[in-house]
Amino acid sequence: MGPTQKADSREHTLGRMLELLETAAARDASLIVFPELAFTTFFPRWYLEDGALYQYSERSMPNPAVQRLFDRARALPVGFYIGYAEQTPDERRYNCSILVDCDGKILGCYRKVHLPGSVEPRGGARYQQLEKRYFAYGDLGFPAFRAGADWRHAIIGMMICNDRRWPEAWRVLGLQGVELVCVGYNSAAYDPNGGATEDAALRTFHSKPVTQATAYMNATWAIAVAKAGDEDGSGLIGGSCIVDPTGRIVAEAETLADEVVVADLDLDLCRQGKDRMFNFAAHRRPEQYSVITERAGIIEPTALSAIATNLSEARR
Amino acid sequence: MGPTQKADSREHTLGRMLELLETAAARDASLIVFPELAFTTFFPRWYLEDGALYQYSERSMPNPAVQRLFDRARALPVGFYIGYAEQTPDERRYNCSILVDCDGKILGCYRKVHLPGSVEPRGGARYQQLEKRYFAYGDLGFPAFRAGADWRHAIIGMMICNDRRWPEAWRVLGLQGVELVCVGYNSAAYDPNGGATEDAALRTFHSKPVTQATAYMNATWAIAVAKAGDEDGSGLIGGSCIVDPTGRIVAEAETLADEVVVADLDLDLCRQGKDRMFNFAAHRRPEQYSVITERAGIIEPTALSAIATNLSEARR
């Protein structure tokens, strides 16, 4: 999807999504992947009061504002992945995605685990990244779902944006035998506040080997879909792509605008990796991985030596 | 390094390594990375009796057969990473690597965790992959080491070959703040027994995004070094490369023969990733990763549902 401005109406954006849905269905797609927070602009870049957040959030799914998308999808019939801001009855918000099958049933729900940004706004900055403020951490893990015949009984997992840079997310799905991972994203193309860091070319580049290597290492198809282009002066990378289980890009977007990219996913291509090189049961060594679940942050070797010294001193 | 044939003498191979050492030192290298099992041919492709394995194994390090390399390195002075088959006093073997600093001291040792191949030879096959037969699983974890001034006090980790395809190995090093990962490898370019699977181009390709993406996701430099070319009718991929902490290849080998590739490693380039995008303490969510250390193999969603059903039936 191309950009969605703050001033764009919900109705206008939904109209664009319906057009994309029609185009994809006409090209024989049965599963259509929309990006993260697809119904609205990427609002975490703005500092907003609680009340202002309502317009960006969905209190149920489907709901009247999006019903047309669900109805048309079921009529075609196609299913879809879509990301949105979920507002729960107890007033918590999650950065969420769902898989809607070709019968219009919600096959699975995922709530984003790897929230970037900060809780407190950056003083004096025009653009923020306030996902840690607006959203609670996902509490559903990384569930994989067995699809029905319309999607060839694939085992499908979901991620959202930043998750795809965390190999743990891929591996938790890989350990469920995932054959397709759908990821929607809104990734900044550069620092919109003018900081001299990475540029759009480097950031677009990053998105690809991350998706390719982790798809390969888990022997799964991956579909990574951007909301791209300029949203109210803040640039988002494109680079939407479909990656096969050997890590090759088989189709990719060429623009930063609304665009449909289609591929036929042969799930049997997952077997070579899952049965041989990445036969987890034969080759993984979990007893060597304990630090991955024991702590979040870094302890450098010198610090560990210092701890050992302190311990031995404490024992004297 | 180019290939090493079964018939090549130890002396001949060591001579090639000394030449590479001299060339690299003349180009101002201070750390030289040799491949996995660098002193010999990749012998796990052959079915060998225990006695025949002695000629491929090192019972101490250094030892008279390799002393010249250590002496010349210290004189220059340069340090190095090298992989070899370690034979312990109690007759166990490990696929091992060491870091030797510019003073000739062994800074650290690593024993390969992710052993590919099988214990039993494949009947009727000309070429084997018997690492699981010849070697014990590494029992040292994935330790990182703080280097001295010669290597700019870098935190350095080691992997061997297949390890680089396992994101867990990178992450355990990443959680120690690693700034440089050295990997030596011998990776088959195709099935030498003629099976119709992946070809050399695809396998050479695989090695790159794996190294690039995992270096990026751990904000570390990586040096991946092949033993390449045709060893007694079995092809090995090349693709040796030096990757920066944003995942870009900054130097790479162009041949399958002995070749020196040099880069200057600015360790400060690790900071952007470690402090921001991949600030582990701020952004990792270990409570969601437990399955990574709880089991080795895959449990598919349907199997899990079956377990749940079984459990609820058991409770009746």
From TrEMBL, chains A, B:
<dbReference type="Pfam" id="PF00795">
    <property type="entry name" value="CN_hydrolase"/>
</dbReference>
<dbReference type="InterPro" id="IPR036526">
    <property type="entry name" value="C-N_Hydrolase_sf"/>
</dbReference>
<feature type="domain" description="CN hydrolase">
    <location>
        <begin position="1"/>
        <end position="267"/>
    </location>
</feature>
<dbReference type="InterPro" id="IPR003010">
    <property type="entry name" value="C-N_Hydrolase"/>
</dbReference>
<keyword id="KW-0378">Hydrolase</keyword>
<dbReference type="GO" id="GO:0016787">
    <property type="term" value="F:hydrolase activity"/>
</dbReference>
<protein>
    <submittedName>
        <fullName>N-carbamoyl-D-amino-acid hydrolase</fullName>
    </submittedName>
</protein>
<dbReference type="InterPro" id="IPR050345">
    <property type="entry name" value="Aliph_Amidase/BUP"/>
</dbReference>
